Each structure stands twice: as structure tokens, then as C-alpha cells.
């Protein structure tokens, strides 16, 4: 039986924290737009996947030439990231089967490695819940007192940075996001919505350099990461992953 893979890329953010002239997905990184890097990494890992790209309805900067996938569609984003993802899932109704895998990946994470993408997918295919790329917290964690001073040092054991992609079966992800919305939960990632159903998504350890471009200094950092990955050579050189037959 064929096993389809769906990719949802939320790219309808405004990049307010970046404070640039254009949303950060359109800023130039190593010679091309951030979005083009992100879609290229996903395509290298999953050349036959089907893509749903969430864009702001007023977006005048998007260029379809950046999309390397043969099967893709554009949907309007929503007010929040979770709304954009929900719009994508609604657009896939009737196409995606309940048991088919959906990987959601921020357009703002162009440095994700192909190896991590493929490994994540392979691990999640065999998981009954689904999960996400993540990295264990490496620093000592402080909680502030609201006035710029330390109130407490928190235990870092067991804490992880949540990254993307986050992958779940289509039916479960639809149910999780719809339930979160009904309950008025403001979820910042797919895993939180699934957790709210009482399920425990799998944490798949990924590279720490899967940076989400968020603040102005992140663009230069991302350029240095891409350059270091290029020099490293192995990051994107290994197997791509086709849909499993
Ligand atoms: N309404 C929204 C908000 C965010 N996103 C996407 O969700 C990802 C993560 O969001 P974030 O880093 O917060 O991006 P922005 O919303 O663009 O940034 P900011 O919060 O600083 O405005 C990004 O790929 C962004 O484009 C989206 O598709 N729809
Ligand atoms: C999904 C996410 O990338 C996980 O780290 C993140 O939560 C999205 O960014 P936001 O700043 O919370 O919208």
C-alpha cells in the first residue's frame, strides 16, 4: 500500500520581531530568499511529497519559482500560526487520508538538515502518536522575578527546545487542533495540541543549528550555519526519502 507524505509549511507570518522591511521568509540569505532555502531542504529530503504552503492573503512577494515540488498548493494563512496550519489541513480534506503523515515545518527554519528530516520521518512512521525534532536544553535555566532579577534557577534536566518539523497522522492532527481551538488553548506548536488530548509526542533529538530565524541577528547566524553545513559536507549529502511503498 502506498504511504503518502504531506508537508505543511506555515509561511504567513509577518516577522514582527525581525522588524525588517519584508516578512523574514523573503529576506535574502546566502543569495536567495529564506523561503527558497527551506523548501529546497524539504524537497531534498522528500522529493515526492505533496506540499501545502500557507501564505498571507495579501502576499505580493511570493514567487512560485521557489517551489521545487511537483504537487503543491497555496492556502491563505490565518491570524496565528495554528490558524494557518488549520487552514492547510482543511484544504487537504478529501485528499489526505486520516492515517497519512503530515510534517509541519516553519518556513523560518531554513537550516534544518536533510539527515534530520529523513531520520525524523523514519522514526515517526513507526510511532503511534507522532512527534517532533527537538534539542535538549544545554544552559542553566533562570526564571526572572519580573523586574530583571533572578527569582530561581530551574532544573534543566528533561527540558527540550521544541523545533520543527512536527509530524502527526492527518486525522489526529485535525482532531488535536480543532479541540485546542474549541477549548480556547493558544497552542504555539502542533505537539502542544496533541499533548492537550492526553497523548505524549515523541522527542526526536535533532541538530541544534535548526535555528528559527526570529530576531535581526538570526539572519547572519543562519548564513554562518549554512556556510558551516556546506563545509561540513555531510549534512545534506545523504539519502533522500521517497514515499514508502
Ligand atoms: N499567522 C501566522 C504566524 C506565523 N506563521 C508562520 O509560523 C512560523 C513560526 O512563526 P514565527 O517565528 O513567530 O514567525 P512570524 O509570525 O513571522 O514572526 P513574529 O512572531 O515575530 O511576527 C513562521 O514560519 C511563520 O511564517 C504563519 O504561517 N501564520
Ligand atoms: C513551532 C515552533 O517553531 C517550535 O519552536 C515555535 O513555537 C513557533 O514559533 P512562535 O514564535 O512560538 O510562533
Name the average pLDDT. 95
* Portion in beta strands: 15-25%
Number of distinct helices: 6
Level-2 CATH architecture: Alpha-Beta Complex
The helix/strand class is: alpha/beta
Radius of gyration based on Cα positions: 18 Å
Give the total of beta strands: 11
* Residue share in helix: 25-40%
Find the CATH topology. Answer: Spore Coat Polysaccharide Biosynthesis Protein SpsA, Chain A
Q: What count of domains describes the coordinates?
A: 1
- CATH homologous superfamily label: Spore Coat Polysaccharide Biosynthesis Protein SpsA, Chain A
The major pleated sheet works out as:
7 strands, mixed
Order of helices and strands: EEEHEEHEHEEEEHHEH
The N- and C-terminal alpha carbons lie at a distance of 6 Å
CATH class: Alpha Beta
Q: Flag low-confidence runs.
A: none
Q: Rough shape?
A: globular
Bound molecules: cytidine-5'-triphosphate, the ligand C[C@](O)(CO)[C@H](O)COP(=O)(O)O
Order of strands, main sheet, comes to: 5-4-1-6-10-7-11
What would you say this structure looks like, in words?
With 245 residues, the chain is α/β, with parallel strands linked by helices. It has a single domain, classed as Spore Coat Polysaccharide Biosynthesis Protein SpsA, Chain A, CATH 3.90.550.10. Helices cover 29% and strands 22% of the residues. The strands form 3 sheets. A 7-stranded mixed beta sheet has the order 5-4-1-6-10-7-11, sandwiched between helices. A two-stranded antiparallel ribbon has the order 2-3. A two-stranded antiparallel ribbon has the order 8-9. Helix 2 packs across helix 4. The longest helix has 16 residues, at 217-232. It is globular, with a radius of gyration of 18 Å. The ligand C[C@](O)(CO)[C@H](O)COP(=O)(O)O binds at residues 81, 106, 162-164, 188-189, 212.
Amino acid at each position: 500500500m502506498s504511504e503518502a507524505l504531506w508537508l505543511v509549511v506555515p509561511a504567513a507570518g509577518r516577522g514582527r520581531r525581525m522588524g525588517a522591511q519584508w516578512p523574514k521568509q523573503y529576506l535574502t540569505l546566502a543569495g536567495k530568499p529564506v523561503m527558497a532555502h527551506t523548501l529546497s531542504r524539504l524537497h531534498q529530503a522528500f522529493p515526492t511529497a505533496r506540499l501545502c504552503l500557507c501564505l498571507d492573503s495579501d502576499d505580493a512577494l511570493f514567487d512560485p519559482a521557489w517551489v521545487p515540488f511537483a504537487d503543491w498548493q497555496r492556502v491563505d494563512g490565518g491570524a496565528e500560526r495554528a490558524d494557518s496550519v488549520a487552514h492547510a489541513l482543511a484544504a487537504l480534506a478529501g485528499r489526505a487520508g486520516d492515517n497519512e503523515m503530515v510534517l509541519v515545518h516553519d518556513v523560518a527554519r531554513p537550516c534544518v538538515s536533510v539527515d534530520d528530516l529523513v531520520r525524523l520521518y523514519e522514526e515517526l512512521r513507526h510511532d503511534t502518536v507522532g512527534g517532533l525534532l527537538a534539542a535538549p536544553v544545554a544552559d542553566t535555566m533562570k526564571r526572572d522575578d519580573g523586574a530583571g532579577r533572578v527569582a530561581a534557577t530551574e532544573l534543566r534536566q528533561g527540558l527540550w527546545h521544541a523545533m520543527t518539523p512536527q509530524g502527526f497522522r492527518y486525522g489526529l492532527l485535525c482532531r488535536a487542533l480543532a479541540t485546542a481551538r474549541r477549548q480556547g488553548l493558544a497552542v504555539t506548536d502542533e505537539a502542544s495540541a496533541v499533548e492537550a488530548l492526553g497523548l505524549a509526542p515523541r522527542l526526536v533529538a535533532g541538530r541544534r543549528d535548526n535555528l528559527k530565524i526570529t530576531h535581526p541577528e538570526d539572519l547572519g547566524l543562519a548564513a554562518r550555519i549554512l556556510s558551516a553545513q556546506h563545509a561540513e559536507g555531510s549534512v545534506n549529502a545523504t539519502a533522500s526519502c521517497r514515499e514508502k511503498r
